[in-house]
Every structure is written in C-alpha cells, then in structure tokens.
Amino acid sequence: MTQRTDTKSSIIAAQAKENPKSSILEILGASTKLGLTAFGGPIAHLGYFRDEYVKRRKWIDEKSYADLVALCQFLPGPASSQVGISIGMMLGGMLGGLASWIGFTLPSALALMIFAYALKNYDVINVGWLHGLMIAAVVVVTQAVWGMARSLAPDRTRGTIAVLTAIITLLWPSAYGQLIVIAAAGLFGRFFLATSEMPETPLIGISISRRMAVVAWILFFGLLIGLPLLRAVFPSYWLAVFDSFFRVGSLVFGGGHVVLPMLQAEVVPPGWLTDSQFLAGYGAAQAIPGPLFTFSAYLGAVMNGWIGAMVALIAMFLPSFLLVTGALPFWDAVRRRPNFQSILKGINASVVGILLAALFNLVWMKAIHTPYDFCLAIAAFGLLMLWKLPPWVIVLFSAAGGALTSMFS
C-alpha cells in the first residue's frame, strides 16, 4: 500500500515537471477559488484546504496534510497560508508555491486596497450577510474537526490527547501556550505511542534541494537581523516600512488576529496611520475571504498607494516563503523516521484538539447567537455533509441565510 501511494506521489510530481504550465495554472485556479470563498480565519481555511486539496482533488493524502499542518503550527506566520504554499511547492516547486500564494492572497489584497482608496472612512458593521459568513465558517470547521478526528485521533489515547489539548487551549488562550501543548503532546507520543512497524507515510515529493533550504534559512535570519541594523545606519522610509512588516511576519505566532496588535504598534506610533484608519481597515478585513495578513495591503495602500501596498504585502509574507522553503526539504525526511512518526501521532492528535478549541472560541462564539443562527448552521451542515455541496455553495447559502435571519432576530 505504501509503495502504491509513494508511486502516486511520484507520478504527480513528475507530471508537474513534464507539463509545468498546466500544473501551475491548475494550482493557481484552485487556490484562487479558495481565495474567493475561504471565509472565517486561519482555522476555517484549514478546513477549506482539506476539502479542496485532500478530499476533492486528492493532491495530498490525509496523513501528509496533517503533517504539513503540524509543521506550520510550529512556524511563525500565517499557518493556513503556509500550508497552501507547501502544497503548491509539493506539486510545482517554487513556482507552484508562488502560484498558490498569489491565488489565495490576491483577491483579499485587492479588495483591501480598494477599501483603502474608496472606503477608508467607512465603518463596516455586522450586517446579516456578513454574520452568515461566520456561520459558514462554523460549518466548515466542524467538518474539518470531525474528519481529522476520525483519522488522527481514532483511539482512546489520542482522543484523550485531543480532548485535553482542547481544554488547555481554551483555558490558556496563548500562542506560546499552544506551542507548549503541541510540544508536550509530541513528547508524550514519542514514549507512549511508539509502534514496532513503520506506519504508512507517503512521500510529499518536494522538488526543493537542501542547499536551497539552507540558503532560505540564511536569508531569513540575515534579513531579520540585518534590516533593523540597516534601518538604523541608513534611515529610509521604504526600508523602515519593509523592516516593520517583515519583522511582524517573522515573529508572530498564532497568525490571524494575533498579528493585529503587533501591526498597530508598528504603523500607528510613527504616524503612518491614525487609529481610526487602522480600525476602519480592520473592520473591512472581517468582510472578505482569504488570509488576515493581507491587511498589510490595506495599511500599505493608506500609507503610500499601491506601491506601499505591494511593499507591505511582500514584506509581510516573505518570511513565510523563506521558512517553508527552509523547512520542507528536511521535513519530508524527518517525518518518515519511526521515532518521529510517534512524535507526530501525538502532535497531530493535539492539532485536532486545537481545532476543536478554535471551533468553540474563535468561530462558534462569534457566530451562533440565536436559534435562527443555529438553525442556519444545521441546514448548512446538512448540505455540506449529506448532500456533498462544495464549500463555496455553503458560503453563498449561509450569506443569504444570514441576511434573511437578520430580519427576524
């Protein structure tokens, strides 16, 4: 079975090399669809990714997807974007990773640039259709938690790890606390989830060399340490902007809303933006799909037009590219070792618990307020699970239902 799965991964990688244009275009098309429909924040994005890449397109198997999620939970930056970039690199190398990032990021970045130009003084309110999008996120995350729990926490021990992780994460809502729980679960797995036989671990098939990975690590730490020094020695507005956004993208753990206070501390005190401009953009960011890190495009556009938007956006996501490029070539080898597989069993079970906690704390509590909300969520869940409708249909259905239920609640 392992040989058959490895062969399938090799065939996919070979096809990407033989016909790179069609492969890159396919990656771009799939990620753009997600960039237009993936509402609800990073945890919900992982659910959308799983449905599109694992279940529908079968570009990556469930185990490898879970391992990528585990890796990106350890890396600073936007975990969902890094997972998407990783899958793109798996299929099409560096160009595939770039295509995946562009497709997933560009729709929300362009939307926020438009907000910056035309709606910077507009206060986005919780209108019905926007609330419906949050309900869609509840449905998608619920499906992801259910599906991943069945494969990653199928027995009593790993199920207990998932439950305890969810409890600790809810009671200790800290990005660093989350990392500690993941590390503890991996340590438990190493000693108590060991198996005598090597579990099935398909090759990811990354076409990036280890030499390139080392170069990526050197560039990452070189820029992280060197940019502040250059900024101090050679004062420059553009260098200061690039340094600020690169540093935030390099050091924030947890992604999503965790990045907002760090960004505010970088752009408001220097006078690049006012508090009202920052909060207006934050409100606008809640109404669009895609990664919240594209909020940097709004900030850059307010600061210095479309050029500022591009500089801020690239600086914000560049650390993710360098980190993923540096980690993936070694990750594929490390994850196939028997001892590390035991560690991953514990880590993956803890990831299920983190998703479960996020379902309640980050999604459910913000979306389900009335019986109408719960009825809409049940209906959308039935359409997704029983009728097998694609997520983008669920998004449209929930948005329309949210607009309708707002008239009665």
From TrEMBL:
<feature type="transmembrane region" description="Helical">
    <location>
        <begin position="208"/>
        <end position="230"/>
    </location>
</feature>
<keyword id="KW-1133">Transmembrane helix</keyword>
<dbReference type="Pfam" id="PF02417">
    <property type="entry name" value="Chromate_transp"/>
</dbReference>
<dbReference type="GO" id="GO:0005886">
    <property type="term" value="C:plasma membrane"/>
</dbReference>
<dbReference type="InterPro" id="IPR014047">
    <property type="entry name" value="Chr_Tranpt_l_chain"/>
</dbReference>
<feature type="transmembrane region" description="Helical">
    <location>
        <begin position="161"/>
        <end position="188"/>
    </location>
</feature>
<feature type="transmembrane region" description="Helical">
    <location>
        <begin position="376"/>
        <end position="400"/>
    </location>
</feature>
<keyword id="KW-0812">Transmembrane</keyword>
<protein>
    <submittedName>
        <fullName>Chromate transporter</fullName>
    </submittedName>
</protein>
<keyword id="KW-1003">Cell membrane</keyword>
<feature type="transmembrane region" description="Helical">
    <location>
        <begin position="306"/>
        <end position="331"/>
    </location>
</feature>
<dbReference type="InterPro" id="IPR003370">
    <property type="entry name" value="Chromate_transpt"/>
</dbReference>
<dbReference type="GO" id="GO:0015109">
    <property type="term" value="F:chromate transmembrane transporter activity"/>
</dbReference>
<keyword id="KW-0472">Membrane</keyword>
<comment type="similarity">
    <text>Belongs to the chromate ion transporter (CHR) (TC 2.A.51) family.</text>
</comment>
<feature type="transmembrane region" description="Helical">
    <location>
        <begin position="279"/>
        <end position="299"/>
    </location>
</feature>
<feature type="transmembrane region" description="Helical">
    <location>
        <begin position="95"/>
        <end position="117"/>
    </location>
</feature>
<feature type="transmembrane region" description="Helical">
    <location>
        <begin position="343"/>
        <end position="364"/>
    </location>
</feature>
<feature type="transmembrane region" description="Helical">
    <location>
        <begin position="129"/>
        <end position="149"/>
    </location>
</feature>
<feature type="transmembrane region" description="Helical">
    <location>
        <begin position="237"/>
        <end position="259"/>
    </location>
</feature>
